[in-house]
Specification:
single chain; 194 residues; Uracil-DNA Glycosylase, subunit E; five-stranded mixed sheet; binds iron/sulfur cluster; Znf_C2H2_type; Uracil-DNA glycosylase family protein
């Protein structure tokens, strides 16, 4: 399979239509040579509607506060391959949150996507994505240490969602100590100096 065939196959996937109760809209972006492969959980409803990854309050925090980069830098396909363990918005759970990302999506696509992209580093966002990629390792250990996926340095962050505020309060060392290290690695991978 060629990379373009893979992208077309993901875009055409509707496996979860019945489970979601709406037509799936797979959302990801990047090239085979994106410098950073960012893997998160699943698109939000706003991302589903606008078809632009991290085009929501989580994205604002991620791009502007955590990475400290511009939209032009984030959405430059040479910089980021942006994907998720579930490529489609799974719907709401009735309590205001999103349904869990279907792991069937990750099982179907993730290893193949990872095998095609020649990224320098991985950034994993959110406990669900981290637990899928590093099963059995406590999330806190994943966040505060460097890991390897394949042969590439991998950095794990909590989800930047405003709903995650309790985790941020309970783990101030993330934003005070760990985040600057991860940001420096992201900037280094991008070749960004200011
Ligand atoms: S979430 Fe994944 S498996 Fe489900 S329809 Fe979307 S692309 Fe297909």
């Amino acid at each position: 399979m060629e990379f373009n065939e893979l992208k077309e196959s993901i875009l055409a996937c509707r496996d979860c239509a019945e489970k979601f109760g709406h037509t799936p809209s797979p959302i990801f972006h990047g090239t085979q040579h994106s410098k950073i492969m960012q893997i998160s959980q699943a698109p939000s409803k706003n991302v589903h509607l606008t078809k632009r990854p991290f085009n929501d309050p989580s994205g604002d925090k991620l791009k502007y506060q955590w990475y400290q980069i511009t939209d032009d830098e984030f959405y430059n396909e040479d910089n980021f391959y942006i994907t998720s363990i579930a490529h489609c918005f799974p719907g709401k759970n009735g309590k205001g949150g999103d349904k869990p990302p279907p792991l069937s999506c990750a099982k179907k696509w993730m290893a193949t996507e990872m095998s095609f992209v020649d990224n320098k580093i991985f950034v994993i966002i959110g406990a669900k994505a981290a637990n899928y990629l590093f099963p059995g390792i406590p999330f806190i250990d994943l966040v505060f240490n460097e890991h390897i996926l394949g042969d590439k340095p991998t950095y794990v962050m909590p989800h930047p969602s405003p709903l995650n505020v309790r985790w941020f309060k309970e783990h101030p060392a993330f934003e005070e100590q760990r985040l600057p290290v991860i940001r420096a690695k992201v900037w280094e991978a991008l070749g960004k100096t200011e």
